[in-house]
Q: What sequence folds into this?
C-alpha cells in the first residue's frame, strides 16, 4: 500500500514517502509510518485511536501509546529539520492531532517556520 500513497492539494504533495511543499524547495523523505501518519492527517483522520488502527492495524492497540507518541515526536522533528514549520502538526489535547490550518492558508506566501501561527486545524 505504501507505494500507492498519494495526496495533493494546492500547497502539499505526498507521493509514496516524500512530502513536498509546492512552490518551495522544501522536501522531506519520511519513514513508512511517518508517511502513513501524514496521509491519515491529510484525509481528516485525527483521532488517536483511529490513527493507531491505521498505522498499526494488527497490533494490540492498548499497547500502542508509546509507539504513537514516539512517532509523533520523530515526525515533528524530521519535518522541522527539513524546513517545515515547528507547528505543522498540532496536538488536540485528549483527542489526537491535526495539521495546522494556518500553514495551508499561505498558498502563495513564504512562511517563517519560526513564527507563531494561529493554531487552527486543517480540515480538507
A:
Amino acid at each position: 500500500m505504501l507505494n500507492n500513497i498519494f495526496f495533493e492539494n494546492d500547497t502539499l504533495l505526498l507521493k509514496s514517502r516524500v512530502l513536498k511543499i509546492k512552490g518551495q524547495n522544501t522536501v522531506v523523505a519520511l519513514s513508512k509510518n511517518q508517511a502513513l501518519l501524514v496521509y491519515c492527517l491529510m484525509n481528516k483522520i485525527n483521532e488517536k485511536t483511529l490513527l493507531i488502527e491505521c498505522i498499526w492495524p494488527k497490533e494490540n492497540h492498548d499497547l500502542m501509546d508509546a509507539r504513537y507518541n514516539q512517532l509523533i515526536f520523530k515526525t515533528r522533528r524530521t519535518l522541522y529539520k527539513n524546513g517545515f514549520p515547528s507547528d505543522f502538526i498540532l496536538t488536540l489535547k485528549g483527542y489526537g492531532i491535526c495539521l495546522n490550518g494556518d500553514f495551508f492558508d499561505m498558498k502563495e506566501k513564504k512562511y517563517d517556520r519560526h513564527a507563531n501561527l494561529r493554531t487552527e486545524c486543517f480540515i480538507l
